[in-house]
Amino acid sequence: MRIISGKKRGMKLLGPGTHETRPITDRVKEALFSVLYKYDVIEDGCVADLFSGTGSMGLESLSRGAKFATFIEQSPKVVAILKRNIEKAAFVEESTVIKANVFKVGAPVTADIEKYNLVFVDPPYVMSTNSREGTRVAKLLMLLNDQLAGGGLVIVRTHKRSELDETYGDLKLIDKRMWGTMGVAIFQLQSEGKTDDQ
After folding, report:
1. In a domain, 13, yes or no
2. 29-67 per-position pLDDT tens digit
3. For residue 128, what pLDDT is reported?
């Protein structure tokens, strides 16, 4: 597990040595970021990495030019590894770590962030098998409506057979990809007059 591209290209990330996280493979991460580049949300953007684990997605974004990343993780053991990875990458000044229940806080606004341009949502598979209206993941996506900048993206990683709605408030599904048993859904906030084809 490493940073694929950018300023910290090739840097290996520390893992927790437990089954508390399910890191994305380098191949899939590279493919996903290739898709994201056409939306122009990474360069100078504000990123939130929810259920962040070792921080792979947020750190990759910082390496590729994001100006700030917020990491939200609940496990104390994983938070300790996450902080070591941020220090190793020398992104302490561009990062904040919040130990919290993601379902309660979403992508919280901080002193450094007003709203986010890109949010990664990577809940445990057992929680994302069904993400339809009324589920915990659906309620989280509704919460993100108020924490995302207009035109911003939410990337939801699930099992490929997981059920997702087409919209959650002003979040609209604009792309869906499958890699092995993993599904990735890309939602875009349709408010403020900005859509995926503008």
Report:
1. no
2. 999 999 999 999 999 999 999 999 999 999 999 999 999
3. 62
Task: Give the count of alpha carbons within 13 A of 148, CB side only.
Answer: 32
Element (H, E) at 165: none
**Long-range Cβ contacts of 132-136 (<8 Å, 24+ apart):** 132/163, 132/164, 132/165, 133/165, 136/103
* CA dihedral angle for residue 88, residue 94, residue 96, residue 97, rounded to 10 degrees: -30
| Predicted local distance difference test score (pLDDT) of residue 197 | 43
- Report the CATH number that the domain containing residue 74 is assigned in CATH: 3.40.50.150
Let me know if residue 31 belongs to a domain: no
Neighbours of 48 (CB within 10 A): 34
Asked if the structure places residue 26 within a domain, the reply is no
For residue 44, the SS3 value is: coil
HSE toward the beta carbon, residue 58, CA cutoff 13 A: 32
Distance CA 113, CA 70 (A): 9
| Range(s) of the domain holding residue 161 | 40-189
Crossing angle of helices 26-36/56-63, nearest 10°? 50
CA distances from 64 to 43, 145, 150 (A): 7, 25, 21
pTM: 0.90
